[in-house]
Predict the structure.
Amino acid sequence: MQFFFHTGRYLTLIALIFKKPERANIYRKQIIIEMDNLGVQSLGLVSIISIFMGAVLTLQTAFNTEHPLLPIYAVGAATRQAIILEFSPTIISLVLAGKLGSRIASEIGTMRITEQIDALEIMGVNAAGYLILPKVIASLFLNPILIIISMFLGIFGGWLAVVITNVLPLGHYVYGILFDFALFDVFYALIKTVVFAFIITTISGYYGFFTKGGALEVGQSSTKAVVMSSIFILLFNLLLTQLLLT
Amino acid sequence: MIRVMAVSKYFDEVPVLKGVTTSFEQGKTNLVIGQSGSGKTVLMKCLVGLMGCDKGSIYYDDLEFTSTDFAARQIIRQQIGMLFQGGALFDSLTVEENIIFPLDMFSNMVREEKRERANFCLKRVNLENTNHLFPSELSGGMKKRVAIARAIANSPKYLFCDEPNSGLDPRTAIIIDNLISEITQEFNITTIVNTHDMNSVMEIGDKVSFLYKGELWWEGTRKDILHTDNEELNRFVYATELMRILKKS
């Protein structure tokens, strides 16, 4: 029963979010603010994680694929594929689910318990649309950019690891990175990213918007938002992989 | 004018409002009083549509509010100003931006007109030169006054105040009460105030409705309240030692 209750309420909220805005220029202003809050402010975290994970992936692949039948450049190719297909779109989205999800749920949840959402509704403002739609649009635009940056930095991290440790000749790593590259893989990753961005913002918005109680409940909403966003990201990762790669 | 017709509300089959029927007149400060848990806030939330009624109907002038769709309800709400217990100011906006917000959303004013209107509203609540402060920089009384300024910015026809002087010292509470009363008369608004503060009742109550256990128990003016023989109302009015001493004198 709980599942149907939450699904119904979530879909009702989605319908409210996408109602025609009262004033488009106010929403535009909010979208720019959210692009900074949710996108630009995540760049540092995404960069650090991508560089280090790219480096570690390269080292791990190099150490575990030492075999006379495997060409050395396979390390670069395997690192690239791992970063483009899974690490950047999925793992970085999971990280963003933690960072953005908790931020969105706690921000909206606090507005709920301090009656700021009631104040919006009394004024005749569509509170769900005003608070959540700019976040959804900002993430749909900026998350793919973050993921592309993450891909470049992940590969750069691997390059750094090769230069510093000399685990394989640099030329082989670069050759592997370029070997049999398919642009479709990047499109596949970006499609996943867009779906994940929608999941993160709407699920977190949902838990924030329906927060009841006080500070304790805001914390609980925030946790639920992160957990549920992560579960749905993993579920849709499986579904989209099956749909797009078969 | 707002008419409430036999409104009932249940929480998990427990009645919180039991067939409340009353009306709130234009240009008057209508007070709803009662103990905590008597149903005042629930009635107010039903009036503004933050909660649905389980039975009965609410009319804004001749418009039936309870059964209207989302779009029609939003139009009525644009004529409503509300002062919440905690102020409910938007934390991320300055005082001026808070007041301009409803104008941004629903008026066709140009930027300069909006700023003028914000300054007028701030002057009306005696808070000039606070335009660029954030809510976190204001005292409790100042927050309430900014919330009043925001509530009247869009020239509402209806003003709702939920416990406007809770958490304020008696002197500031009276300033807020008088401000609400003056604004009601000045702009000919239908004002409804939820309170359990007898000072407010005696200061500004043009019409007083007493709720007891979810029922409308008594209605009258602030003068009538001192001479009523309604037992529950007397118990509420003379709950404090001060009021008992006043009664004896």
